[in-house]
Amino acid sequence: MEEVHRKLPFECRRCWHVWEEEYLVRYGEDRHGNERQVWLRGGVPVPPPSEGAICPSCGSQHCTTFPEGYLRRHPELIPPAEPAPPDETPLLSPVPKRLY
Ligand SMILES: [Zn+2]
Q: What distance in angstroms lies between residue 69's CA and the mean position of ligand 1's atoms?
């Protein structure tokens, strides 16, 4: 079984809020040898993002995903208050650089 961390960008079609969700995706096979994916968030199984997400800002279910890494090429879409991604050196200053 293989585990992959994935960070997917979402956009709300109602209020245009943009955010990212981090997932742990477990790839494996079921007993019949069929490929199987389990999406986890915070250790809890969740529906795959292709089945939609709920906007944390307005609660709308009309959300779309961007290709992975899209926001890295479009940093202007991320509001400055976005929390810093998990840091590999959390004991040092986790304070993100201000973008403005
Ligand atoms: Zn929204």
A: 21
The answer to the question of residue 59 being in a domain is yes
Residue 55 Cα to ligand 1 middle (Å): 5
pTM assigned to the model: 0.59
Tell me, letter by letter, the H, E, C secondary structure of the chain: CEEEEEEEEEEECCCCCEEEEEEEEEEEECCCCCEEEEEEECCEEECCHHHCCCCCCCCCCCEEECCCCHHHHCHHHCCCCCCCCCCCCCCCCCCCCCCC
Residue-wise pLDDT for 52-88, tens only, equals 788 999 999 999 887 777 777 888 877 666 566 666 7
Residue 10 structural domain? 2-77
pLDDT in tens, 5-57: 998 889 999 999 999 889 999 998 888 989 889 999 888 998 888 777 889 99
The tally of domains found in the chain comes to: 1
Q: How far is the CA of 54 from the centre of ligand 1 (A)?
A: 8
